[in-house]
C-alpha cells in the first residue's frame, strides 16, 4: 500500500500511513523525492561557490579531498 | 479529542517539522492530521534520516575540508555558500570543538536559522559544547520568532547549564508553548527543577493571562507529584485562577485533564475547586462527574 513512500525512505514507514489515500501517499512520496533532488542540487552549487571563497593556494588540497 | 484518542493539536507541531524538512506549506500536509502523533514522529525521523544520509559522503568530505581552513573562513563559507540548511546537515559531521569555533564567529540570527534546520540527535556533541551565553542569545532570537517547535526539539540534547541559560532567556508564555511541544517530556521534571518554585508560579499566571491552560495542564501532568500538589494547591487559593481554569476547561474541552489533576491534590484543595464550580458555575456541575457527586 505504501510502496512509493517506502521506496523513497528505503525503509518501511509506519503501517498506518496505509490509511492515507493513494493521492496523498503519492504526494508524500513525491515531496520526499523533490527534497532529495533539491538538496543534491543545492550541495553541488554550494561546493562551487565555497571554492571561490577559498584562497587559491588552499583550493588544490581541498579539491583533492573530493576526488 | 477524537474518537480514537487523537488530539489534532498534538499533530500540528509534527506536521510543521515535516513540512520544513520537505519545504512544503504545512497546510498542504493537513491530511496527515488523520494519523496518530507517534506515527507522524516516526515518519518525520525517517525523512530526516533519508535527507541527512542522502549526501553523507559529500558532507563528510566537506567536514574534512573544513579542517584545512581557518574557523573564520569556514564561518564565511557557511553563511555565503552553504546557507542554514546545508550548514545544519554538515554540523553533525564536524569535529565538535571545530564546530564550536566556527559557531563563535557566526551571527546569532544565522545560528538560529541553522538551529531550525538541525537534527539535534546528530549534533548533540556539538550542542553540549556551545557556551551557555551563546545558547541564551540563540534562544532569545528563537523566542522572538515564536520558534517554540525548534526550542522543543533541543531541550533534550542540552546540558543543564545550557538549559538554565535558555530558560533565563525565555518568557513564561514561550516556556509554556515550548514545553507543550517538547520532544522529550521526561525532561520537564528537570526543567521544573531549574525553574524553581517562583518561576513555576509565574507560569500559572501566564496560563491565566494568555489562555494557555492546555499547555499548563500538560506541563503539570509531567511534573513529579510533590510539585503538582504544591502548584495546584497554590493555584486553587485564587479565585481568578479558578475562574480562568474553569472557562478554559469548557472552551478547550479539557475537563478530563483538569479533573485528572484534582486526583493528586489534597482533600481541601479538591473541595475548594468543587465548591467554586458549584457556587459560581452551577450549570457546569455535571462536568465534575463522580468528583461532583461525591462533594
The total beta strand count of chain A reads 0
Please write the string of helix (H) and strand (E) elements of chain A.
HHH
Q: How many structurally independent domains of chain A?
A: 1
Largest interface between protein chains, with number of residues from each side: A-B, 34 and 38 residues
Tell me about the largest β-sheet of chain B.
Answer: none
Helix content of chain A: over 70%
Residue windows where pLDDT falls under 50 for at least 5 positions of chain B: 1-6
Number of helices of chain A: 3
- How many strand elements of chain B? 0
What Rg of chain B is obtained from the alpha carbons, in whole angstroms? 22 Å
Q: How many angstroms does the end-to-end distance of chain B come to?
A: 27 Å
Mean pLDDT of chain A: 91
Question: What is the general shape of chain A?
Answer: elongated
Judged by helices, strands and strand pairing, the structural class of chain A is: mainly alpha
Characterization of the model:
The complex is a heterodimer of chains A (67) and B (295). Chain A is an all-alpha fold and 67 residues long. Chain A has one domain (3-65). Chain A has helices spanning 3-9, 22-53, 56-65. With 295 residues, chain B is an all-alpha fold. In chain B, helix 4 crosses helix 5 and helix 4 runs parallel beside helix 6 (108-117). Chains A and B meet through helix 2 and helix 3 of A and helix 2, helix 3 and helix 4 of B.
